[in-house]
Every structure is written in structure tokens, then in C-alpha cells.
Amino acid sequence: MVDWDARQRALRDAFAAWHERLDAIHRDDGSDRFCFEQWDLIRESGILRLPFEERYGGLAEDLLTTMYVLEGLGQGCRDGGLGFSVCTHMVSAGVPVQRFGSEDLKARYMPRLCDGSAIGAHAITEPRGGSDALAMETQAIDLGDRYLISGTKAFVTNGPVADVFVVYARTKPERGPFAITAFVVDRDTPGLRVGRPIAKMGLKASPVAEVVLDGCEVDAANVIAKRGAGFLVLDHVMKWEILCTFVASVGAMQHRLERCIDYARTRHQFGRPIGSFQSIANKVVDMKIGIETARRWLYDTAVRFVRNEDITTDLAIAKLLASEANVAAALAAIQIFGANGYTTEYGLESDLRDAVGGTIYSGTSEIQRNKIARMLGLGEHTSASQVHSAVVA
């Protein structure tokens, strides 16, 4: 595990000071509504600036420090949807532009992504593709100085409120990782249409929508990296996305554990605290084990990622552990709280609904198990290193 220094702890504490204000305006009314008042506080806090270069208004923090602060956000802010939108904006829009964008592209977009004045989203999933990104049907026709993009993207997080989309489209007729290109597309680009927010089970404050591109003309200068490098861009983004999003989930799990410990100590049945019953104590212990295991895998994987090591297996394991431990812990918390846990007043049912999403987005649990199996030699696979070598060659 990482040993955090005094500066990093102070930075996390500084952002923690905003949690109470964020929670004060949190309203879980069952609707899939983005709260711009909360977003304004997020912008004011500066948390969106964490991993970006100072010349664009960023704080130039490394991945591990960014994760550490986001874990604190998950622990201190009770709105899981807000945290999810923060991670999506930062990682899925800001990270690819900074890491792979041209100087012109970065100059045009990074200042607004850093300060949150432009909300970011990425459009990768398609109605028929699901987790199979390479099966996308959205096409971008090369017209020389511009591209003509047509296709439909599904379940676009932040879609209803986004100002900037990172769109992945096929620029070659054949399938495969080298046929995909990533583009930055403004919301007001003719031919881009955002559908209605899609009602969903959890993460209510993080709206999703369908995005339709119908002959959408995008300047060639808005290509991220270069033509055919879209899979490389996506591979990098997905590493950041899993590490940042699920470390925030670990923070939420930590908060839930502390609530359960307190409840198990103070709630009495049959003349003694319920925590003295082994069946309750074991649930709490399993929650603790799940949190510590997920946290260790996420940070250790991040350390290896920073060292430019192959983390294909580690990342799949970390995502699988964190997402499934979160669901198990949320179910256990409801059981520990009993009838109170089943009510909306205590918020545990909301935790469960949010947690279930983690087993689906960023690659389902089934997909993660398939990846691990392939890395064990149980099937064909294309490694990230193979893709990288082919793209940069």
C-alpha cells in the first residue's frame, strides 16, 4: 500500500471540507436529475483540476494522489451519482485530451475541462455493442480536412448535460482495434442530438442518455492522437476510469462500514449489542476484508500502471473485487440494519442500487472474468502492449 505524506493528507482534508456543503443540497427524490448547484460547488472546490497540467489551470497531481482524494470524496459525499459524474468528466474527457491531444486541441479544451465550465462525457457504448467496443458501428468518413460521423451511442454518462463529448468511431471498414478513432465533438455541432435522460436504478444524480450522430461534421483537428489510435486512447482511459471510479466506491464502502460498526455497537436486542452476535459480527468482518482487499488491489495496480507495467490481469481483478465487494457489503448493511435498512430514510437501499451499477459499467463482471481467463491462456486475446506497438509503429 502507498504511504501518504503530509502534503497528500492535507490535500485530501482540504477537499473533505466541501463534503458537508455538497450533502446539504443533495436530494435523492428518485429522479435522474443533474444538480448544477452541486456542480458549481465541485468546480469551486477545484477537485476537477487534480490530474491536469498547471498551464491549463490544473493542479498537476499524479494518478495516486488523484485516487486518494477521490476515495475521500466517495467516503465523505453521500451522492454517489455526483462522484460518478465527476470521475467521468475528469477521466473520460479530460485525461484523453491531455494525454493524447495535439497542442491545439489541449489549448482549446483543457482550460474549460479543468475548471468544469464545460462538462465532459464520452460516447463509446452502442445499443448493439454493449461491452464489445470493437463491434461498434458508428462510422467516421474521412473527407480530408474533416470527418463525417454517423451512428448511435447508448448510455452516455453526463450526456444530458455535457458540453463536450469524446466520441469513438470506426474509420476503417474492417473490424479490429486499429479501425477506431477518437474525436472531440462539441454539443452544438450540427448533426449531434442528445436524447432524453434514461431512468435508471441507481446513481440518480449522474444522468445518462442516447447520443445520435447523423452526418455530424467534425474538424480533422479534433482527432485525439491520430487516425486509428482510438483503441489505444480507450485502453488508457479505461485504466484511469476503473482506478478512479472504483477507489471512490471504496470510499463509500468505508463510510458504510463505519455506520455498520456504530449501529452494531449501539443497537441492542435480547439485552446486548447486536454486534456481539457472531452472525452480525461476521458480516462486519467480511465488509472490512472486502474493503481492504479492493483498496489494496486498486492502489497496487495504480503503482504498476505508473511504472508502465502490464496491468491487464491486475486491473480486471481489482475491478471485479471492488464492484462485487461493494454489492455484498451493501446487502450486508441492509441486513445489519434490519427493517431500518430497508427504508429509504437510512439511505442503504440507495447504496445498494448504486453498487449494482459497478458490476456492469466499465466492463461487466463476466467480461472481467473472461479477461482473466484469457490472460491465463484459456483463450485468444489481444494484449494492450500488442495494440500499443502496432499503433505507434
Describe this structure in words.
By secondary structure, this protein is an alpha+beta fold. It folds into three domains: 6-118, Acyl-CoA dehydrogenase/oxidase, N-terminal domain (Butyryl-Coa Dehydrogenase, subunit A, domain 1, Orthogonal Bundle), CATH 1.10.540; 121-227, Beta Barrel (Butyryl-CoA Dehydrogenase, subunit A, domain 2); 231-392, Butyryl-CoA Dehydrogenase, subunit A, domain 3. It has 13 helices and ten strands. The strands form three sheets. A four-stranded mixed β-sheet has the order 1-4-5-8. A hairpin with a 2-residue loop joins strand 9 (268-269) and strand 10. Helix 5 runs antiparallel to helix 6, helix 7 (230-266) packs antiparallel against helix 8 and helix 9 (312-337) runs antiparallel to helix 11 (348-357). The radius of gyration is 21 Å and the shape is globular.
In short:
The protein has helices spanning 6-16, 19-24, 36-45, 63-76, 80-100, 103-115, 230-266, 278-306, 312-337, 339-342, 348-357, 365-375, 384-392, and strands at 120-123, 139-142, 146-157, 164-170, 180-186, 192-194, 208-219, 223-224, 268-269, 272-273.
Radius of gyration: 21 Å
CATH architecture of the largest domain: Up-down Bundle
Arrangement of strands in the largest sheet: 1-4-5-8
User: CATH homologous superfamily of the largest domain?
Assistant: Butyryl-CoA Dehydrogenase, subunit A, domain 3
CATH top level of the largest domain? Answer: Mainly Alpha
Number of domains: 3
CATH structural fold name of the largest domain? Butyryl-CoA Dehydrogenase, subunit A, domain 3
End-to-end separation: 36 Å
Large-scale geometry: globular
As a percent range, the share of helical residues equals 40-55%
Please mark out the parts with pLDDT under 50 across 5 or more consecutive residues, or reply none.
381-393
SSE run: HHHHHHEEEEEEEEHEEHHHHHH
Helix-and-strand structural type: alpha+beta
Biggest beta-sheet profile: 4 strands, mixed
